[in-house]
Amino acid sequence: MDFKSNETIYSQIIEYIRKQIFSGSYGSGTRLPAIRDLAVKCKVNPNTIVRVYAELSEEKLIYTDSTNGKFVTADRGFIERKKREYLEEKAAAFVDEMRQAGIGSEEAIEKLREAFRGEGKERR
Amino acid sequence: MDFKSNETIYSQIIEYIRKQIFSGSYGSGTRLPAIRDLAVKCKVNPNTIVRVYAELSEEKLIYTDSTNGKFVTADRGFIERKKREYLEEKAAAFVDEMRQAGIGSEEAIEKLREAFRGEGKERR
Amino acid sequence: MDFKSNETIYSQIIEYIRKQIFSGSYGSGTRLPAIRDLAVKCKVNPNTIVRVYAELSEEKLIYTDSTNGKFVTADRGFIERKKREYLEEKAAAFVDEMRQAGIGSEEAIEKLREAFRGEGKERR
Amino acid sequence: MDFKSNETIYSQIIEYIRKQIFSGSYGSGTRLPAIRDLAVKCKVNPNTIVRVYAELSEEKLIYTDSTNGKFVTADRGFIERKKREYLEEKAAAFVDEMRQAGIGSEEAIEKLREAFRGEGKERR
DNA sequence: GTGGTCTAGACCACA
DNA sequence: GTGGTCTAGACCACA
User: Is the CB of A64 under 7 A from strand E?
Assistant: First the structure.
């Protein structure tokens, strides 16, 4: 876990958790890492994780079971909807950037295909 | 111009200028907006623009002609290389995010094509 | 039984019991629910109820009959005095809040009358 | 400023600010005390005030003008609606407490009138 | 000077 | 052990 310096640490961790939930690494209904554990793993202060979990709770992706810990929402449909939203936003943002930089859709998509293939090779 | 709250303003303005240069809106060799003007346009303190131009100078995308102001580098090849780098980084970042969120390449590219089409329509 | 998150749970349960005693639901001299039962009802750890009963004992509203359990005080006069005090405190607190919020007594009392009527209707 | 121990400090300060806004002590469009100043006044840590202002911002009662400070919303109608809501909630809560404690509406309202008169005398 | 983020760490309620 | 609140205080971006 290392962080970009121009973005807030907590928002980067939020994004990280969100993606773990979308990918199923943190499955629906599953217990999330304890605040202090995640703080150690991310090498940040527990308060920062408190904030991360607070925002994800507000977003309803996770909930608190008082002293038992934090859990991923049991509502799989909700996660799916959020995941679709996430894809749409990221796609729109990417397209927007390309357009602003004057890069055509063909060229951008070609490069993305390459990148996807590259990722694939690395995984094997 | 409105800014995301999780990123520093100056880094967002840098990105903005960079894209203007890549797209040719700020053409090679061309004079950049005066600090005060850009500050007004961005509703930002001139100091912030000073910092933006300083970082872009360090990156060699722009240079200072002492009394005449800031100019986009005359080296078109350099701009092209930077533009390609930009595309590669953005593509890699996008792919990385999709992979982490467990979204397949086919689905992602399909959504991107949609987004590109959507953008196109809006412009007409 | 659900609890406000900005107040300690034990203080909310104390308030609850106190009101049960004032209303006569837990009559003078009567046996209070066993710790375990109340804990189950409130979905709370028995330790929390222990604390609740301890504080109410200190306040003399209840007492412990060693092996037989906890009982509401037999002193009806004491309960009446406490109830009057309770009313006075609540009324003073309400008035204080209204004054701080710049709400006039006429308006406040009018709204209270409405609320009392609403409660009445719901009960039928 | 002294705080009840069974309630969270930040929620008590939120209530305080809210009432100042409702009463017009902090007028619509007006600048709120700086975080550090209010922290000193309340004898709490600045972070606690940060949280207070954050929650009031979410509620739209106040907003942030980047480095200029925090301001009460300019929307007087919104404040009025919130004030009405506040009165309704407080009245409902009071009535609920009275009912649970077995105190009749006549008695409660009589005591409230007294309390209002008492307040009035103090003010003279 | 203004707000925002973050750290290190204490202390509490609840289980 | 779990989360929640709070403190003291640093450091940063922005004006």
Answer: no
